[in-house]
User: Fold this.
Amino acid sequence: MGEVLHQFDNGAALAEGLADAVAEALSTAIAARGKATLVVSGGSTPKAFFQALSSKPIDWPNVVVTLVDERFVPPESDRSNHKLVSDNLLKAAAAGAQFLPLYHAADDAERAAELATEATASLGAPFDVVILGMGTDGHTASFFPGGSRLAEALDANTPRGVITMEADGAGEPRLTFTFSSLQDARLLVLHIEGNGKKDVLAKAEAPGDEAEMPIRAMLRRASSPLQIYWAP
Assistant:
């Protein structure tokens, strides 16, 4: 479907510009359908964006926030994306938003993924806003090179919902939305910073196997144009 590059001078301008774009998309969704869905990623990159977005004058009680992916750790863990979002996004005006976690206190990650699929089914499809990140290995969501269920996760025929993923670089077992869940978001964003990530992106845009750099699945096959937000 192609991609669109939105380039900013620095990280602060990027955070503000992306927050403005997301706020507009959420408000448009609420005006059209009475509610909006915002699906976000963890990592260090989105913190400033989360903080900028948290004070935007959106009808937050009609926004449901969930995660692109999560580690199988409880929300009080420092490695939890839920904790990251709670600390940086779900505050100020955005404290009024609803949050749907992917982690559930289950016997194992498989059961947690089933519970997360059930809990998030009510969000409907497509999602209004999905914010993806990208690792230096070319992973996005928990689509890791060499991941235990990578082919299934990237298969467009795998149903919408949450599945588990294990990989050498992932640490804990992961819970991740499938490609089919994410690829048709009304606003589909890849949020990256730094020249290193720009180089990774350039490599991903070159010919090669999706399994080697799974971000390629989004670049090549997403049905929504991938909006790349970047600053050096």
Summary: The radius of gyration is 16 Å. The CA atoms of residues 129 and 187 lie 5 Å apart. The chain has one domain: 21-217.
